[in-house]
């Protein structure tokens, strides 16, 4: 729902701008004066009244649960909800009418209070013109990729004795990530796999974990120096289960990384970017999206198509959908027992506020 | 500046706790983390005006706090790997590198003596009381060395094999002398700390487990018997070396591995840094996080100054608190731990109690009870029992009467 809303509001804003431009462009000097006079009249008499009305409409009386006493108990809740929705709609309409009357001097539209917009202050939010962070990032483990010294080569493997859904998931991943190879685990230790992968010059290792025959976690290990991250997989939908889906192509995809704003988020975004080759083939019109919302990273894979001379785009989903949640980030290659952790999600210690996010 | 922090990028940062800000003390853009990473950092003198810094490329630098200047003094020549430990005693600098070569330098940057402590060294620390150093590391048992002769004084022995008869690997991460107690504390990756007494035996006299992740570093605090330890997922605990309950408390707030802690020698404060890029200062008495500074890069080492900007307002209050605590502790004095009174003293005091009890019987009221309290300064248990009697007011008199009759 959230993205839809934002789109709507944006549209409205742009419409308003458009109208304003028209008005200011066409008005002659005399007309302009008249208009000004009209406006003055508005400010003198009506404006205050309208503004008051506007404020009053916000706090207009609504239906309460006492109004539905005549209904049987099982229907009261539903009826109340319906009535409240109706009230809200009517208040909105009233306000929009007043806005039209007020014209330019209308009060600013209120931004909806969501959990994200009321997010707690985070000191690690990355400023774009920060020399120190820039220096740090220029020297971290992903720097060779961003300096175009290495090109990604990805190894995908899974838990020993993986079941069919996990294999299916790995195949889907292989389809999304170009230049990736899939291997069955065959009871080899992860640390030996890492050594072998380093020898064969792989740059990333993905290990899919499963529980109750379904993939539930994924380890991202950047080679040769780390770091390693563990993600929980949520709400996985395979391509075949989508309502409408397309067939993926071999073109290099574009990668969209949304909302990774903190220092930790930056690191994770850089890590995810390292999975995909440098120059996307724009002819393929393939997009892979990692969208971070409230610390959950949504993975989507689309093909886009421009319509009406590039003003609109249509999307065709290509394949799988899943959500990732970061559990820990470890320095160096995989070593869960002796390794050093850069960040660990401590559930009861850290999750004391709903409005605190880490990515 | 209250706190000096060494980062993995090679930046040296000075943090001002009063304002919750930090400042870089050297040029960042010219740094190369592969050669400039700060691996060790100690105070060069007791007045805390100079810092001795060891870099990844084994350069030793002297940082003057007042002038803000950095001077290279020497480059460690022997062995391979980064400098794992620094120690300064009587104008001599002791360095230890990862491959185990220990070198003693004089003030003209010349090697006086050199010896090996075995490969895989992870820590080398000196003692303030005697000319000794302690070393340890991966597959490298804890050993103490005489600084003047370079001879090994004592070496520890590994703990007995586990229940399956398998040898327990040696993974020392931190070691230090406990001042005034002749003991050595070791932290290792088996999430436990071991306390050695070289006078008694080669195996640890005490093993203190802590959570489930490798312990990365330890620190002394303002009390001789209390130490701080932190592990690789950012759990920090306060321990009392005498008690059986471990830990005394856990400190909250860290989210990543802690690389360095520094406790204040006289105040209940401790600063900790780690690769989660934060400098945190905790109050050891209230156990609360009092300062949290985001330093932008992964941090390796921290040094806390004795004179802090936050202390001036706080001083009087903090001191009182300590006094209260001291009386509560009973055996804890300013000089350190005072052993419990011997049994003979107890007997004498018991007599005193019975002597003073007569007064109560004669009709003395509260004031007499207070006198009794003052006279009885024995062990904690006894004091408490007397307190209880005082609390009950009426009841104790009857009890005393009964006891008298028995006598």
Automatic annotation (TrEMBL), chain A:
Record's compositionally biased regions (Basic and acidic residues): 90-102
Region (Disordered) location: 1-38, 57-113
One biological process term in Gene Ontology: maturation of 5.8S rRNA
Compositionally biased intervals (Basic residues): 71-89
Domain Brix residues, every copy: 152-335
An example molecular function term from Gene Ontology annotations: rRNA primary transcript binding
Compositionally biased intervals (Acidic residues): 18-38
GO cellular component, one term: nucleolus
Entry-linked PROSITE patterns: BRIX
Record field: transmembrane: none
Protein name: Brix domain-containing protein
UniProtKB/TrEMBL annotation, chain B:
GO terms under biological process: ribosomal large subunit biogenesis
SUPFAM superfamilies reported for this sequence: WD40 repeat-like (SSF50978)
Basic residues composition bias: residue spans: 398-407
Region ranges (Disordered): 317-407
GO CC annotation terms, alphabetical: nucleolus; preribosome, large subunit precursor
Listed Basic and acidic residues bias regions: 358-378, 385-397
Compositionally skewed regions (Acidic residues) per UniProt: 342-353
Source organism, top-level taxon: Eukaryota
Protein's recorded name: WD_REPEATS_REGION domain-containing protein
Organism from which the protein derives: Caenorhabditis tropicalis
Lineage: Eukaryota, Metazoa, Ecdysozoa, Nematoda, Chromadorea
């Amino acid at each position: 729902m959230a993205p839809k809303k934002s789109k709507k509001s944006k549209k409205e804003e742009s419409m308003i701008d458009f109208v304003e431009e028209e008005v200011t462009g066409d008005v002659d000097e005399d007309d302009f004066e008249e208009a000004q006079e009209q406006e003055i009249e508005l400010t003198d008499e009506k404006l205050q009244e309208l503004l008051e009305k506007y404020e009053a409409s916000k706090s207009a009386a609504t239906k309460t649960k006492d109004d539905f006493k005549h209904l049987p108990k099982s229907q009261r809740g539903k009826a109340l909800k319906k009535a409240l929705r109706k009230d809200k709609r009517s208040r909105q309409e009233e306000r929009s009418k007043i806005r039209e009357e007020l014209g330019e001097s209308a009060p600013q539209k209120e931004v909806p209070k969501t959990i994200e917009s009321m997010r707690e202050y985070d000191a690690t939010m990355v400023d774009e013109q920060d020399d120190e962070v820039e220096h740090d990032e220029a020297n971290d483990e992903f720097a060779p990729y961003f300096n175009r010294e290495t090109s990604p080569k990805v190894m995908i493997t899974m838990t020993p004795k993986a079941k069919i859904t996990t294999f299916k998931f790995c195949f889907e991943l292989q389809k999304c990530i170009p230049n990736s190879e899939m291997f069955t685990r065959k009871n080899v230790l992860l640390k030996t796999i890492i050594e072998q992968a380093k020898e064969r010059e792989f740059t990333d290792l993905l290990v899919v974990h499963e529980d109750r025959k379904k993939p539930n976690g994924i380890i991202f290990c950047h080679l040769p120096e780390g770091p390693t991250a563990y993600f929980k997989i949520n709400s996985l939908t395979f391509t075949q289960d989508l309502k409408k889906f397309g067939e993926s192509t071999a073109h290099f995809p574009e990668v969209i990384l949304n909302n990774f704003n903190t220092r930790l988020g930056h690191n994770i975004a850089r890590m995810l970017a390292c999975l995909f080759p440098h120059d996307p083939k724009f002819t393929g019109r393939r997009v892979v999206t990692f969208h971070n919302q409230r610390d959950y990273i949504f993975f989507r894979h689309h093909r886009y198509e421009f319509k009406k001379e590039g003003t609109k785009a249509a999307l065709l989903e290509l394949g799988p959908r899943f959500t990732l949640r970061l559990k820990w980030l470890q320095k160096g290659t995989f070593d869960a027992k002796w390794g050093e952790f850069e960040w660990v999600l401590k559930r009861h210690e850290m999750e004391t506020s709903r409005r605190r996010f880490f990515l | 500046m209250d706190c000096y922090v060494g980062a993995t990028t090679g930046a040296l940062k000075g943090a001002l706790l009063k304002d919750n800000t930090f400042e870089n003390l050297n040029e960042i853009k010219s740094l190369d983390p592969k050669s400039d990473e700060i691996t060790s950092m100690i105070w060069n003198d007791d007045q805390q005006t100079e810092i001795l810094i060891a870099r990844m490329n084994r350069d030793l630098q002297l940082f003057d706090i007042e002038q803000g200047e950095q001077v290279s003094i020497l480059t460690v020549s022997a062995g391979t790997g980064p400098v794992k430990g620094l120690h300064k005693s009587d104008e001599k600098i002791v360095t230890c590198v990862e491959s185990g070569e220990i070198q003693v330098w004089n003030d003209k940057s010349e090697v006086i003596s050199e010896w090996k402590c075995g490969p895989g060294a992870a820590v080398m620390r000196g003692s303030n009381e005697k000319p000794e150093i302690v070393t340890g590391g991966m597959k490298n048992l804890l050993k103490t060395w005489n600084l003047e002769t370079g001879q090994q004084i004592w070496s520890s022995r590994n703990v007995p094999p586990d229940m399956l008869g398998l040898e327990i690997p040696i993974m020392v991460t931190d070691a230090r002398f406990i001042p005034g107690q002749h003991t050595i504390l070791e932290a290792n990756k088996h999430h436990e700390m071991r306390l050695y007494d070289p006078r008694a035996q080669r195996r640890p006299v005490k093993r203190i487990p802590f959570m489930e992740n490798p312990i990365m570093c330890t620190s002394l605090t303002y009390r001789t018997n209390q130490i701080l330890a932190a592990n690789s997922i950012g759990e920090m605990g306060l321990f009392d070396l005498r008690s059986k309950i471990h830990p005394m408390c856990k400190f909250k707030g860290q989210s990543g591995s802690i690389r360095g802690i520094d406790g204040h020698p006289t105040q209940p404060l401790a600063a900790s840094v780690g690769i989660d890029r934060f400098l945190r200062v905790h109050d050891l008495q209230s156990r609360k996080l009092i300062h949290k500074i985001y330093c932008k890069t992964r941090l390796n080492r921290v040094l806390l100054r004795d004179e802090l900007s936050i202390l001036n307002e706080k001083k009087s209050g903090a001191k009182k608190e300590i006094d209260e605590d001291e009386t509560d502790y009973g055996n804890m004095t300013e000089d350190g731990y005072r052993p419990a009174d011997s049994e003979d003293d107890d007997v004498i005091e018991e007599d005193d109690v019975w002597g003073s009890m007569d007064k109560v019987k004669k009709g003395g009221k509260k004031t007499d009870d207070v006198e009794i309290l003052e006279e009885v300064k024995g062990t904690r248990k006894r004091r408490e029992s007397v307190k209880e009697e005082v609390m009950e007011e009426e009841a104790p008199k009857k009890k005393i009467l009964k006891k008298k009759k028995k006598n």
